[in-house]
Amino acid sequence: MAMREIRVVPDPVLRTKCDEITHIDDRVKGLVEDLLETVDMEGRAGLAANQIGVNLRAFAYNIDDDLGYVINPRIVELSEESYQDGDEGCLSVPGLWYPTRRHMYARVEGIDLDGRPLTVEGTDLMGRCLQHEVDHLDGLLYLDRLERSVRRRAMQELRASL
After folding, report:
1. Which residues form the catalytic set?
2. Is pTM, for the whole model, over 0.90?
3. CA triple 49-51-56, angle to 5 deg
4. Tens-place pLDDT, residues 44-88
5. CATH code, domain with 61
6. Does 23 belong to an annotated binding site?
7. Is residue 6 part of a domain?
């Protein structure tokens, strides 16, 4: 296991849709171990594989002392009428926090390291984390979800920080 370096914008790997994992081998097991070790720090809620430079569909989460992972996650349910509008940040966009609208509830399905079906669901921070990490695996950043005027300001602040 290894603590991995976090990729930050404008690294192109963050804008690349990640590939499905078709075979669970030692490389995938090592990736999951690295994701878990790297996310297991105070202030870190989630980490997608592309944030550590690996173009595979896997992420780890660390919410309220619940540490876990999902391989090949897909969102299968979102709350239809219940939303949250809290500030959101990202390890790959350090130091910037902006109000980001997310569904209050999310449910993700994928598999574990043994290839067994895995479901993770939650509201509030867990719901936000699940949506945020699946976005990463699709090549999206939370900045892409901001309202237009807020996004313009965020991009200006981001360019100034580079």
Report:
1. 133
2. yes
3. 25
4. 999 999 999 999 999 999 999 899 999 999 999 999 999 999 999
5. 3.90.45.10
6. no
7. no
